Each structure stands twice: as structure tokens, then as C-alpha cells.
């Protein structure tokens, strides 16, 4: 299928790496509730007086190299897919599915915020989204998880034509004669550590539904399309 700008949307090179195994492999220990972090703008909530089931960094599968996040899922985004359009559609999807219907669909109230990449202009508005999940501890609403959904920082080469090289073989190149790149190879879903295990049931279903939305974008150019 073709997008509005005429680019054909290729079949994704591989299926998204799902989160179920990572979430199921965590070892639960007793600890203090997670405190809200500074990322994003969220409605402040009071810390609960009780205790939550959390998992510390040394006991978590899927830790990133920096050791500050647990990677739950990632999907490779083909170079021809415009990143800004993809991220805008994913933001709309999360606003509706999580922000508006999180409590009804997943049993958790949620808030969705855009993550600014610090650049000016509409095309540089965001590199991803922050989804904050809230739960109930001892009768009080507290933040139990921050889910960061964003493109990574890898530069991906893109090409717009085939031309013969000096040996007569066709090679991918650009009509401009220059190397061209897009920002971000993978759409990565991760959460800070330590983690609160009470968010896991909701996260598993959320990420399963999110990967279906990504596949709809691959196939139809919209997270809200179907095959009917």
C-alpha cells in the first residue's frame, strides 16, 4: 500500500520483539513504592504509606546497557516510513487507547505525554511518548510505572534509486549523490528500574495491542485501519 506522499510501505523485516517473556522473567522482591520521576508533565500524586512489589536492577531481564531501563519490546521501522508521521499516529493511538480508555481496557488510569527532543519546528516536535500508569495502594492513587515509547538514536541509511557501479552491478544510491539518513531504526518500549510488578498484567496486554497497531501502520498506513 502507498502512503499519502506516494511512498510504498514495505513489509517489516521482522516481527516486533514481544514483552511477555521479559515481563514474566522478573523476580519479585519486597520494597518501597516507586517514586515519580522528572520525565514528562504529569498530575502529581502522593506516595502511598504501604509497600509495593518491586524488582531491583540486579534481578531484571532485558536491562539496557546503561542499566537504568528494562527494554520490553522493540520494532524495526523501515527507512522509507516517515518517522514524524509514524510517531504522530502512535501518539493519537496512545491518547485514545491508554489516555482515554486505560482504566476501562487495562484496569489502570493512564496519562500520555509527548517527549520533546529539544529541537524547534513541527517536524522535530517529538521522538516519542511517555505513558504513566497509576494504581491504588492502601486506598491512595500512586504512580506505578512510566512507559517510554520512542525511536532509538541510530542513523539509518536510505536510498531512492539503483545505479550501476564501476563493475556494472546495480547498487542502491541516491539521485543527489549524497549519503542520506533517517533518525531511528527501532521503536523501543522500555521502563525505568526498579520496576513495580503490579503493572505487569496491564503492560503485557498494552504492548500486545500496541504491536498490532504498529503492524496496521505497516500494512495500511494507519494505526486505526483494519483489513475489512
Explain the overall architecture.
The two termini are 15 Å apart. Helix 2 packs antiparallel against helix 4 (200-220). By secondary structure, the chain is an alpha+beta fold. 21% of the residues lie in helices and 30% in strands. The chain is built from four helices and twelve strands; from the N terminus they run αβββααβββββββββα. Mean pLDDT is 76; it is low at 1-13, 17-21 and 24-54.
Q: Radius of gyration in whole Å, from Cα? A: 20 Å
Shape: elongated
Fraction of residues in H or I helices: 10-25%
Number of helices: 4
The count of DSSP E runs of length 2 or more, i.e. the number of strands, is 12
Order of helices and strands: HEEEHHEEEEEEEEEH
Mean pLDDT: 76
Distance from N terminus to C terminus (CA atoms, Å) equals 15 Å
Query: Strands across the major sheet, in which order?
Result: 3-11-6-5-4
Percent of residues in beta strands? 25-35%
Unreliable parts: 1-13, 17-21, 24-54
Main beta sheet strand tally, sense and closure: 5 strands, antiparallel
Secondary-structure-based class equals: alpha+beta
Oligomer status: single chain
Topology:
Elements: H1 20-24, E1 29-31, E2 52-55, E3 69-76, H2 83-100, H3 102-106, E4 109-115, E5 128-137, E6 140-151, E7 155-158, E8 161-164, E9 170-173, E10 180-183, E11 186-192, E12 195-196, H4 200-220
Antiparallel strand pairs: 1-2, 2-12, 3-11, 4-5, 5-6, 6-11, 7-10, 8-9
Helix pairs in contact: 2-4
